[in-house]
Protein: Gamma-butyrobetaine hydroxylase-like N-terminal domain-containing protein
Organism: Candidatus Odyssella acanthamoebae
Amino acid sequence: MSRSDFANKPWPTNIRLLQKENALEVEFDDGNHFSFSAEYLRVESPSAEVQGHGASQKRTLGGCKTVGIRTVESVGNYAIRIHFSDNHSTGIYSWSYLHELGCKKNENWSRYLEMVKTLGLSR
């Protein structure tokens, strides 16, 4: 896939793994700039383990507060795979999914915190 395949979708212009902050920063060509904690990326992983096989199957993970990002690798030129310190690495984060995670960060994070509380999980 090339950039032209994604003509009308945001495209990353810079991706930085911030080891000390345990975060990933992504800048997009539409001017958006997002900083994602490892915990947020882990609990919103696009993997089947978290997302299931449909919207009604999404699973709330606990115990991810101390999860770190070990490495980030390119998947073609359309996504990245994040290798987390808990050995999770099956989610492929497309550019559009990362952009969506950034735009919906407050909403997603609030929902996650509420679900953790409701389910009696620790972060």
